[in-house]
């Protein structure tokens, strides 16, 4: 069941609200339709009963010699009157016995006198036969379809109700009256249907507006949370709007401020500690040079070198968390060329494949530090590096490949942890501090991208830096 539900909150709210409102509208329409049918049936029945009662009273008050003339005047479709006993007794259709009882009650109320009544109601359709008693009252044969004059009404298959009333006047004269009328409650009123369609359209539009209005703050909050990982100093959210939205925005802004203060304090403390460590390290290096024992002097010098590299890496790590460097267009091709030249100067085997066809808006020094760390890792642990550049409209991909032993699958993510080193290949003898990849990933994520590692099928490791273009204008690529 869950897989058929919409995935977004907006779609789910539209589904629930629209479904509920449509169901309520159709239920209301059904109740109204039923009440309308009953009201129209009662109104039409009351009108017919009053006319029949008036005719019975008129005939009862008229001398017997004048009755035939009156019957001749009133005997016209859709109303028929017959004096004398009926040729046959007409029984109500099984489903219309309730109609007959209601009509009889209305007729007794309208007559207000003591007249013996027998009322029956039958249904006849224009096609398929008029029902029993039709031929008797209208001069036709049983089974003939249509009422005289009904052929021009343009309503095919229209249901007609025949109210047959049999009674006796005070002088015991039998009178049979047949009043026919359309069963209007079965019709579909065009105006009501148009009103229903318009109402449903308005409900649909209001539902869309309401759902969008309710879910828009959540969408804004989600977008702000995603941007927070890329820019901790992003502008705060607008704290206006409904109470719940305002409280959520204030809580988010307070969290952002606390995170920014925490990161700033941590960066400042660690930077100060790392910087202050350089002074005693320098003093120890000077004292080491004065040692007479050459072997001991070399050991001290090696330990101090590792300490100095670790302090430098820690400073680089802290600087990688600092986003104070202004963003500007960076010539990626020139940046990679400078990194390759620096690597080759110290004996590194580095090659370039592909080229960036457009500049990238970012922090130039941070990007250089990120790529330098990836290239240094490839040169140190993979005997060489190949920088493959793929530029597109959506993203810029820079993949640094080496021909080393690669890594175990379980280590591909752990090596991004601060100060983590794979002991089998990255130990103190190699000079690794365990921060190079951590710094590279932090810088990539600060630009909205990422760095991932994967083992190559042909051997070696591939470190891929992906930087999203976002809304940058790429004139060269168009």
Question: What is the secondary structure topology, with strand pairs?
Answer:
Layout: H1 9-61, H2 64-74, E1 79-83, H3 97-111, E2 117-125, H4 134-138, E3 159-168, E4 174-182, H5 190-230, H6 243-289, H7 294-321, E5 328-330, H8 332-345, E6 350-353, E7 360-362, H9 364-382, E8 385-391, E9 395-401, H10 411-414, H11 436-446, E10 450-455, E11 461-468
Parallel strand pairs: 6-8
Antiparallel strand pairs: 1-4, 2-3, 3-4, 5-7, 8-9, 9-11, 10-11
Helix pairs in contact: 1-3, 1-5, 5-6, 6-7, 7-11, 8-9, 9-11
- The ordered H/E elements are HHEHEHEEHHHEHEEHEEHHEE
Give the N-terminus to C-terminus distance in angstroms.
45 Å
> Can you tell me the residue ranges where pLDDT is under 50 for at least 5 consecutive residues?
126-158, 424-429, 473-478
The count of DSSP E runs of length 2 or more, i.e. the number of strands, is: 11
Structural class: alpha+beta
The helix content, as a percent range, equals 40-55%
- Report the portion of residues in β strands: 5-15%
Count structural domains: 3
Strands in their spatial order, largest beta sheet? 6-8-9-11-10
Question: What is the 3D shape?
Answer: rod-shaped
Number of helices: 11
Mean pLDDT: 76
**Main sheet characteristics:** 5 strands, mixed
Kindly report the oligomeric state of this protein. single chain
The Cα radius of gyration reads 48 Å
């Amino acid at each position: 069941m869950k897989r058929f539900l919409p995935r977004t909150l907006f779609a789910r709210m539209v589904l629930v609200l629209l479904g509920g409102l449509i169901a309520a509208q159709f239920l209301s329409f059904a109740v109204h339709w039923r009440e309308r049918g009953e009201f129209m049936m009662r109104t039409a029945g009351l009108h017919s009963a009053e006319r029949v009662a008036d005719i019975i009273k008129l005939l009862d008050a008229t001398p017997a010699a004048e009755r035939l003339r009156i019957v001749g005047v009133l005997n016209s479709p859709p109303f028929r009157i017959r004096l004398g006993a009926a040729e046959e007794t007409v029984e109500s259709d099984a489903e219309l016995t309730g109609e007959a009882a209601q009509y009889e009650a209305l007729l007794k109320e309208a007559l207000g006198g003591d007249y013996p009544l027998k009322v029956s109601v039958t249904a006849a359709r224009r096609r398929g036969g008029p029902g029993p008693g039709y031929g008797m009252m209208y001069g036709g044969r049983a089974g003939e379809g249509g009422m005289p004059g009904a052929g021009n009404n343009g309503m095919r298959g229209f249901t007609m109700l025949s109210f047959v009333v049999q009674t006796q006047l005070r002088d015991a004269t039998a009178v049979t009256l047949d009043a026919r009328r359309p069963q209007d409650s079965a019709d579909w009123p065009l105006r009501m249907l148009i009103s229903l369609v318009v109402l449903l359209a308005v409900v649909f539009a209001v539902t869309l507006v309401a759902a969008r209005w309710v879910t828009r703050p959540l969408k804004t909050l989600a977008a702000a949370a995603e941007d927070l990982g890329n820019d901790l100093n992003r502008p705060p959210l607008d704290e206006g709007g409904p109470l719940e939205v305002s409280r959520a925005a204030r809580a988010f802004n307070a969290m952002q401020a606390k995170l920014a203060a925490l990161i700033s304090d941590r960066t400042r403390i660690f930077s100060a500690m790392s910087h202050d460590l350089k002074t005693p390290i320098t003093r120890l290096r000077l004292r080491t040079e004065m040692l007479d024992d050459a072997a001991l002097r070399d050991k001290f010098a090696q330990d101090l070198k590792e300490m100095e590299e670790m302090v430098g890496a820690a400073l680089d790590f802290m600087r990688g968390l600092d986003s104070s460097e202004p963003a500007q267009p960076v010539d990626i091709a020139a940046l990679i060329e400078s990194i390759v030249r620096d690597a080759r100067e110290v004996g590194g085997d580095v090659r370039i494949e592909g080229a960036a066809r457009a500049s990238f808006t970012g922090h130039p020094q941070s990007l250089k530090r990120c790529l330098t760390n990836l290239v240094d890792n490839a040169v140190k642990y993979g005997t060489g590096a190949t920088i493959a550049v793929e530029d597109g409209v959506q993203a810029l991909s820079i993949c640094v490949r080496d021909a080393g032993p690669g890594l175990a699958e379980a280590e591909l993510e752990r090596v991004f942890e601060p100060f983590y080193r794979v002991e089998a290949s990255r130990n103190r003898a190699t000079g690794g501090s365990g921060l190079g990849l951590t710094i590279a990933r932090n810088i990539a994520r600060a630009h909205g991208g990422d760095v991932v590692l994967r083992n190559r099928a042909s051997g070696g490791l591939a470190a891929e830096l992906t930087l999203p273009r976002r809304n940058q204008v790429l004139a060269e690529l168009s």
